[in-house]
Amino acid sequence: MSALSRKLLRETWRMRGQALAIGVVIAGGVSTLIMALASLDSLTLTRDAFYRDYRFAAVFASLKRAPEPLRESVERIPGVQRVETRVVAGVNLDIPDFEDPATGVLVSLPDGRNAELNRLFLREGRLPEPGRDQEVVASQSFADAHGFHPGDGLAAIIHGRRQRLEIVGVALSPEYIYQIKPGDIFPDYARHGIFWMNRTQLANAYDMDGAFNDLVLSLTRDARTQDVIERLDLLLEPYGGLGALAREDQLSDRYLSAELEQLQGMAKLLPGIFLGVAAFLLNVVLTRLIGTQRDQIAILKAFGYTNLQVGWHYVQWVLLIVLLGLLLGTAAGIWLAQQMAELYRDFFHFPYLEFRIASRVVGIAVLVTLAAGLLGTLTALWRAVRLPPAEAMRPEPPALYRPILIERLGLERFFSQPVRMILRNLERQPLRAGLSILGIAMGCGILMVGRFQEGALDYLIQVQYGLAQRDDLSLTFVEPTSRRAVQELAALPGVDWVEPTRSIAVRLRHAHASYRTAIQGLPPDGRLRRVLDDRLRVLEIPPEGLLISEYLAEILRVRPGDRLEVDFLEGCRDRREIAVVGVVSEWTGVSAYMDLEALDRLAGEGEAISGALIDLAPGAREAVVARLKEAPRVAGVTDRLRAIQSFTDSMVEIVLSFAFVASLLAGSIAFGVVYNNARIALTERARDLATLRVLGFGLGEIAFILLGEILVLTLLAIPVGFAIGTLLIVAIVEGVSSDLYRFPLVIEPSVYAFSALVILVSTALSGVMVARRLTRLDLVAVLKTRE
Amino acid sequence: MPSESASSVFVVRGLAKTYVMGEVSVPALQDVDLDLYSGELVVLLGPSGSGKSTLLNILGGLDRASAGEVVCDGWNLTRAGDRELTAFRREVVGFVFQFYNLIPSLTARENVAIVTEIAADPMAPHEALDLVGLGGRLDHFPAQLSGGEQQRVAIARAIAKRPRVLLCDEPTGALDSSTGVIVLQVLERINRELGTTTAVITHNAGIAAMADRVVQMSDGRIQSIRENGSRLAPSELSW
Ligand SMILES: Nc1ncnc2c1ncn2[C@@H]1O[C@H](COP(=O)(O)OP(=O)(O)O)[C@@H](O)[C@H]1O
Ligand SMILES: [Mg+2]
């Protein structure tokens, strides 16, 4: 090994604390980058493979009822490759030993065969045999939630008739990777399941013999999806078509895409912050190192080392630390990516996981990290390269001190000498002080992001279920039903209050924008379902006109006063013009609301309702739910409170572990910055501090001078961190907001408190570690060394 | 003047060096003519600030002249680029400085090796250290050596590559007299045994007696060049 390499290794070993602190920050960047990229890769790969192997459809349409021969017309649409007609129906479930209401979707399979499109992946058991009317395959998430296996049974209420379902298989489907009930915020596997059964039996139960109410298509390679959808919509219109959806608009696929987008955002943001801070740290430490090694650089050059060789020597120092960070980060990143991918596999229910860390991912991580390390240290390296050897033989000129701000203002008498020393040091290197503040602030910002979710989720639930949706149970009817149902429900023992609702599928248009959703008709004086404005005040439902959610207003680019064209996809199936009279704030879905009677008038079909909201008397839940499950026209009953509870229980763990990892990483940033600062301050001031000790200053006093500077930086960094954290949160909230869900931009005071606390603790820890070195300050030796 | 047969290693003509610092320019050297002959030991004498280091730095290719000409053994230093000066330093010159400038993280042997590793025909590091009498301290770090020992390591480092010239800037400046004598003895021996042309800067006139020639400088000019009839051994010098 060359003497220069030995120098490199020994010196790096001597400053191993600092090297490790920087290495950990780099590792934070590398691991988050690898984790995000690798799980992005494996999620995409897995999805694509699953979609391909199990023939995920390209177009989805549901309708009221159409005769089977219509299928041939669909097949003739240019671009259509394969058509599968289906019967799909929502049902209420009655699950043994499970009191809560639960709903399901029954999807038909060709008798005795797997589907042609959206094929099932059988986890357990088999497909239903032809002619068996009770046999079903259950979705895995549902089966897992109840511990069901082939051989177990449950009951479904089909057209008011209780029918036994016998589970013969457990399966996954590319259509329900993200298995969420339309309109729900969170998936609820125990209370919502998908079941597949033979077409003949399902059609029998729903009077769909020789007919279908759902259609999925695959397309040829060169087909234009939009064209196919237009022609399909025309074709299905007379049969109650609700408008076909392209794959990108299919619910499960959309959630998946949203998740992938978030990963992509994370792949940029977090590593960017970490590597930025690491680059800064490398720069500070290397600048200092080169400053103290001026004479060594000069000697090397005097003896004929080229500028390049000297530069390379210090580049190697950077590389060594970068390598340390890369090793730590890659190991952590691969591990995290695997955890993440497994979490996704279970969360989304993939049959398998195509997990591999592509060399491309590691390659990107290596390149990005090297680039950050070298770019960050460019100025310092350049100084070492350019240092003229004769110049370098002279010690660095003593620092130039000028009167500082408080002295220029004549305020110095208010500050003690140590405080003045602190302020002077800060003012002398404003750039370094500024970047240190920024680095610590970044840590603080990341902490806020880590903590924000929990509070935001609480807030969301409080608003959505405390203020807006206040029903105990909500139920939907099989088809539009007379208002009389309200009285019938109200008459049930245990029911305190009932309100009707009506939901009609529509397409809203304004200029070139259009959006498919449903208009919810609500009674004007309702208390169970209320709409809120942006300041959470309850809005009155106006007698005429639409209230639309903020997000929808953005999509359609409308403001109150504008008029929308509304295509009713149910009922009258007409096109109407309706004025927008207000904007509602809402965190999930994209809805429009209007007065129930006004909606009735527009939609025709008289006074119909499609659902009801129920307020229960205390203790009446079980009895009422049991009654409703058996009710013939009730398609589904939802108990929101229970659903929320189960969700928050499972979510708390995820949110907390995310917050924990984020805190750890952010804490390491703060620690890295503060520790390096303190160490450098110590080497720079060792002589001064030793001199002060010789003059009779106590250990506490010199520790104050050394650490006071760091404390000042930290205190300045915290408010900056709050600002950065807020910006990050705004960016994230905007990044994740989609018509599926939005996050409220609410930052609880505890988020600030927690972030500041972690930063202060990190500072204190590194302060203590450096202060311990003060006790070892060798007074005599320090005074003897030349500088 | 030494015998006519002795060839010039350095030929310096009309050398000037001006440092420009903002609006002030400091003339550090003016009008310097000088020859250094093969194998001789020259002492450069003069008060602090008289330009000794500047001259030595230019001779060693560490710094560039503002005007005039410096030629060493066929290398024209005044016209050389950065790359050429580096090669010149690598192949021709050994330096010894007042503060030793050893690399603290390397042992004595490694401090020498760092130079021999890039030299064309070096001696082994331990050989060089033997020459300065430190054969027994090969694996000591600078912090474990006394000042005089550190300076001897620095000399070993300078001579290990068998340089044509050895340039020493106040090699005893940081040492007490008895340690200084030991260092000078080493320099004298190297000069005598290896025939390395040696220039030693000092502001201590007592040291001049060990030289073949003494160049007296003041205010950036050469005041006089004196030839000693015979060299005194360092141990006989009076400080
Ligand atoms: N890098 C420099 N910049 C400006 N002035 C310098 C520089 N180096 C030396 N000088 C000036 O040149 C003059 C000669 O310096 P130097 O050669 O170091 O003297 P000596 O070694 O004889 O003490 C002094 O006045 C010194 O201040
Ligand atoms: Mg000098």
Automatic annotation (TrEMBL), chain A:
Pfam family membership, one: FtsX
Keyword vocabulary terms for this entry: Cell membrane, Membrane, Transmembrane, Transmembrane helix
Any single biological process term in GO: lipoprotein localization to outer membrane
Topology in membrane: Multi-pass membrane protein
Superkingdom per UniProt: Bacteria
GO cellular component, one term: plasma membrane protein complex
Transmembrane domains' residue ranges: 20-40, 269-291, 312-337, 357-385, 430-450, 654-678, 699-732, 752-771
Subcellular localization, as worded in the UniProt entry: Cell membrane
Principal subcellular localisation of the protein: membrane
Domain ABC3 transporter permease C-terminal, first and last residues per copy: 270-389, 661-778
InterPro entries given in the database record: ABC3_permease_C (IPR003838), Lipoprotein-release_system (IPR051447)
Protein family (similarity comment): Belongs to the ABC-4 integral membrane protein family. LolC/E subfamily.
Name of the protein this chain belongs to: ABC-type antimicrobial peptide transport system, permease component
Organism: Imhoffiella purpurea
Automatic annotation (TrEMBL), chain B:
A Pfam entry, by short name: ABC_tran
Signal peptide limits: none
UniProt-listed InterPro entries: AAA+_ATPase, ABC_transporter-like_ATP-bd, ABC_transporter-like_CS, MacB-like_ATP-bd, P-loop_NTPase
Keywords associated with the record: ATP-binding, Nucleotide-binding, Transport
Keyword Lipid biosynthesis: no
Record-level GO cellular component terms: transmembrane transporter complex
Domain ABC transporter: 10-237
GO molecular function: ATP binding; ATP hydrolysis activity; transmembrane transporter activity
Family under the similarity heading: Belongs to the ABC transporter superfamily. Macrolide exporter (TC 3.A.1.122) family.
Superkingdom of source: Bacteria
Name listed for the protein in its UniProt record: ABC transporter, ATP-binding protein
